[in-house]
Write a structure and sequence with these properties.
It contains 9 helices and 5 strands, in the order ββαβαβαβαααααα. The chain is an alpha/beta fold and 242 residues long. A 5-stranded mixed beta sheet has the order 1-2-3-4-5, with helices on both faces. The protein starts with a strand and ends with a helix.
Length: 242
């Protein structure tokens, strides 16, 4: 039977960092317990979170999904989730799923906490730099009469601009192959591409195709190609078929 133990602690000069210690197995049966803890932290506006995974033997996709599903909200509030002390087996899955491009992992809880402190200092430094460089106007700008917009390229009245823009928008776009087909073709040619590399290659070859990290991840998940082992198997089958 699956078992999980979760404990909470705080750290930092003002207790602003939440330390979540997890022991046991995080699978479909126990992931709900971890989810409740994460939700309670967000409800209390605790957005600086370190997950101590030193005592975790296994994390299922449901467990990883808890961290990934919350990271956007947390970062919108200038916070982050940092993972610490993953054992080799867990870290291997972490890398295979390419979550290392989203979440930072550290050897110890102390290093994860230090990274929060470095981020805070950098944020303060950036705010000071912006304040110093901001221009100061001593006198109010003289009032200017309203100017009339003039189009040099074409004489379209102001009232017709929206119609003209709509006409441009409705023009048919050049057809391009489906995103999924392009991604699968790329994987067949190079199974060692990371999601980030796939995203950059798509942007380079098809600038008009706006594809985010999450969409690529979803396509690979549906095709069971999140692990590089499966991608390599697909590439071999593709080559053998040709």
């Amino acid at each position: 039977m699956s078992d999980i133990r979760i404990s909470l602690d705080t750290s930092g000069p003002k207790g602003e960092i939440s330390i979540v210690r997890v022991d046991g197995v995080v699978d479909t049966m126990t992931a709900t317990d971890l989810e409740k803890v994460m939700n309670s932290l967000l409800e209390r506006r605790r957005y600086n979170i370190v997950i101590d995974l030193g005592g975790v033997d296994y994390i299922s996709s449901a467990g990883w999904g808890i961290f990934i599903s919350n990271i956007r909200e947390i970062r919108q509030h200038s916070g982050d989730i940092k993972l610490a002390r993953m054992i080799p087996n867990v870290y291997e899955i972490f890398e295979l799923l390419e979550f290392d491009s989203i979440l930072k992992a550290f050897d110890s809880v102390e290093k994860a906490k230090t990274d929060f402190d470095a981020l805070r200092k950098q944020t303060v430094a950036n705010e000071v730099a912006v304040a110093v460089e901001a221009p100061i106007r001593l006198d109010p700008a003289p009032s200017q009469p309203p100017t009339t917009k003039v189009k040099v390229a074409q004489a379209v009245p102001q009232a017709d601009e929206a119609v003209a823009e709509k006409a441009v928008t409705l023009q048919p776009k050049p057809s391009i192959p489906g995103i999924q087909e392009i991604i699968l073709e790329m994987i067949s040619k190079d199974p060692f591409l990371t999601i980030g590399e796939i995203k950059r290659e798509l942007s380079r070859k098809n600038p008009q195709m706006k594809v985010g990290w999450w969409r690529i991840w979803g396509i690979l998940r549906r095709e069971h190609l999140l692990s590089k082992k499966n991608r390599f198997r697909r590439a071999r089958l593709k080559t053998g078929g040709n």
